[in-house]
Amino acid sequence: MSLSSPVTDRSEGDETSSDNLSVPICGSCTPIPLAMIKPATTDKSIPASVLDSPNPSCDHVHFSSKADASAGPGRCADVTDASGCASGAPAVATSTTVAVNMIPAIIGYFSSTFGIGICSFYSRIFQAKGFSAYEIGILVSANPLLNMTLLPALSYLADKFRCQTAMSLVSIIIAAVSMFGYVISEERVHIIVFFLVMTASRVVIGPLLDQRILMMFPKEVRSSAWSYVRSYAAYGWGIGSFVSSLIFSYTGNWVAVTIQYFLGQAALAYCMMMIKPYERIKRAPVNFVDVLKVLRDNERLTLFLFASTMMGTGYSFIDNFLFLFLGELGGSEMLMGLTVILTVSTEIPLFQLSAHLHQMLTERQMMTIAMSVWAFRVMCYATLTKAWMVLLIEPLHGVTFAFMWLPSMHIISRAFPPKLSSSATGLLFTCTSGVGPMLETCSPAPSTPLLGHARCSCALLSPWRLR
Prior knowledge:
4% strand, single chain, three-stranded antiparallel beta sheet, 61% helix, 2 domains, Growth Hormone, Chain: A, mainly alpha
């Protein structure tokens, strides 16, 4: 993305430099002139903070070389100059302020989850079409299988050919068409084919959306700024699921709910076209072995991906069968939609307060808390005797999801180079939505998610593991 004015001490023709900071100009968002910091020395970190903006459409990012605040045990505030200089004389310039337009990102996250409110009711739709619980389990297992096999390949291709936008738009169109076919079909073969095509087309949308929005922020505040914007996905998920339940309750027809899905996908497509990276990513050869090298050289990252995989075993269990279970207990679609609202009620503030959480807790502590609470949550589900009692359990989701996703994205975003950004988010989704759910599906006992969380919590509690 082009600059509104040249940056000091930057060659005008250098379009691949990481100093090529781009400021979106949209709506009432006005770019603020940049004064680049020139570190020539100092071993001190340069902390970054996100300032409250009088313009709600902008995120004003301020960098100060004079601030000496500690980043806290859970945050990594080491920042180096774009030229690679990490030591030398004291910094000359004192600050840089940039305005980043967040409206497209907020629209993208909210609309993507608002539109897929119908996805919460896959099991109910299959049940209404005459599929048994066993058949439903087999069909929904296609999602983790495709996340485990198809997603890594698509993420790698997106990085290799720099085709994230085109891949997202094609996936959105295919998913929308196949969703409509899945809902209106009555023949079992057609239902299965449309469902599998829709599932395959959707596996890459979430990772590419996360990657695109992560890269729109400066590296120094990428994690905390992304977490704030990501909280709007929770708004969309809660509101969208409840709206879907209302539409079905009044119409008795799932076809009407697909209109909501189409609207959400259209807004998501707008987001993917409007958002551009904060820094131009230098074109470089990309090989899949580069991802494996990062994993080999980073024990901390590998262990966190393993922990995320264990968390994924439980997410599959809840996403696929909770509503079937509530239906057996006499719960209505309205109650099911309300459970999703309570599900995100605690997730939203935790994502918005991510910067404070990273200052108070280490990534290891956050993941251990998530696993411990998740194990307790699974035990609570096992004791349900009445459908309405699930409302007492669902607020725990915010802790289990936020305390897993925040540290994982924090580590992923700084472990991989920009050229592998799509592969990085794709790898995390593969572990949580692919490998983990497949382990749960193939497990001989329903207690596997609980045992997996307990074992992985013990591993994370070993201090020497994640220094």
